[in-house]
């Protein structure tokens, strides 16, 4: 029995969302021959994009109505929904509450699409090549480690971001232990001298980040360890539009360029495509592999519930450990215990939470998941 682990990127591998860092890097890269006018214009455009997104989001939450496919019943939007910023509402538990939650998350696609249209119109990523985006990611990690002294800093742009990207504790160690040997072609199931397995596991990644190249730059050498593949949006050349990841197979999607990953449902489809590809590449035993998903936000909700084991990344510790996703899962009536040092209860819970990758490794939960899968 083998296993597949699929990770989210923003807020899971990293300590916080990295879209602002990506945008700041793109702005800092602008040709400044005009006395800084172009950079100033792009900074103003980015602030306008952020402000418009937040305004659209608030309007959507306030006006959204849920209509059950089965009954046609409808209700207001701002009532404890995962994305509403108001978790005090009593949405109850059960299948109907989950259906409503997922419907709301899918409805946000209109907000996300409008935002990407503004990004394209502003030309924030125009004429940026893959090599530029890889470099942005690598420099962002270097800045977090104190190695970015020569970088242009863009703090104070009104969105709470800067150009540094911080990795969650234990990530490098986790990937080295779980991701197998480095070498070979990423995504072909053959990693170096082995078969892409690390202690019985293969790694994959799914993200709604705007640039897979930026993500790879942040990860450094570790993309080679993601033998199951990476499903992340891309910045197209030369227009700088955000498009979806390339299909894993010609039959997977007919649109060209593929549509971007924006919602919880989009992430679920990408997650399921990795599962299908992983099962198809391996023998009959692999087709029964244990699947673990690790994520931190409400856009990971569908993926977490589709996995054999879902791990929720949470900031803080003890009584202070919390997140909107964790609140949402509990409000839906789901029990989410914390992984603890030395192991977790038997049988293995379907959902657990952890502070970081050190938590996961110390808990030995992955060993338990493989053992449970063999039974």
TrEMBL record:
Biased composition (Gly residues): 73-83
SUPFAM superfamilies (UniProt xref): HAD-like (SSF56784)
Segments forming a coiled coil: none
Region feature (Disordered): 66-88, 237-263
PANTHER family, A to Z: COLD TOLERANCE PROTEIN 1 (PTHR28181:SF1), UPF0655 PROTEIN YCR015C (PTHR28181)
Protein name as it appears in the record: Uncharacterized protein
């Amino acid at each position: 029995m083998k296993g597949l682990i699929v990770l989210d990127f923003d807020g899971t591998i990293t300590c916080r969302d990295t879209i602002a860092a990506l945008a700041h890097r793109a702005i800092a890269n602008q040709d400044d021959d005009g006395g800084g006018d172009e950079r100033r214009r792009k900074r103003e455009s980015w602030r306008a994009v952020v402000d418009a997104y937040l305004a659209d989001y608030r309007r959507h939450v306030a006006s959204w109505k849920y209509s059950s496919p089965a009954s046609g019943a409808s209700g207001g939007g701002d009532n404890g929904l995962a994305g509403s910023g108001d978790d005090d509402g009593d949405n109850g538990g059960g299948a109907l509450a989950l259906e409503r939650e997922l419907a709301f998350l899918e409805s946000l696609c209109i907000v996300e699409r409008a935002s990407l249209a503004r990004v394209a119109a502003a030309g924030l990523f125009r004429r940026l090549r893959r090599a530029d985006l890889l470099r942005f990611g690598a420099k962002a990690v270097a800045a977090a480690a104190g190695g970015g002294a020569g970088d242009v800093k863009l703090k104070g742009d009104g969105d709470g971001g800067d150009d540094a990207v911080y990795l969650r504790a234990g990530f490098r160690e986790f990937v080295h232990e779980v991701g197998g040997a480095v070498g070979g072609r990423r995504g072909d199931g053959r990693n170096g001298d082995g078969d892409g397995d690390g202690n019985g596991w293969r790694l994959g990644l799914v993200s709604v980040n705007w640039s897979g190249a930026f993500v790879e730059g942040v990860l450094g050498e570790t993309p080679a360890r993601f033998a199951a593949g990476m499903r992340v949006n891309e910045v197209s050349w030369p227009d700088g539009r955000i498009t979806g990841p390339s299909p894993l197979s010609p039959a997977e999607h007919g649109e060209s360029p593929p549509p971007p990953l924006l919602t919880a449902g989009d992430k679920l489809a990408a997650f399921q495509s990795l599962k299908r590809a992983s099962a198809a590449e391996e023998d009959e035993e692999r087709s029964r592999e244990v699947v673990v998903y690790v994520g931190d936000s409400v856009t990971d909700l569908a993926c977490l519930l589709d996995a054999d084991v879902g791990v929720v990344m949470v900031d803080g510790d003890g009584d202070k450990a919390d997140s909107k996703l964790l609140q949402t899962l509990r409000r839906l009536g789901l029990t989410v215990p914390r992984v603890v040092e030395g192991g977790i209860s038997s049988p293995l819970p379907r959902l657990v939470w952890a502070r970081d990758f050190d938590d996961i490794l110390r808990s030995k939960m992955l060993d338990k998941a493989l053992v449970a899968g063999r039974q």
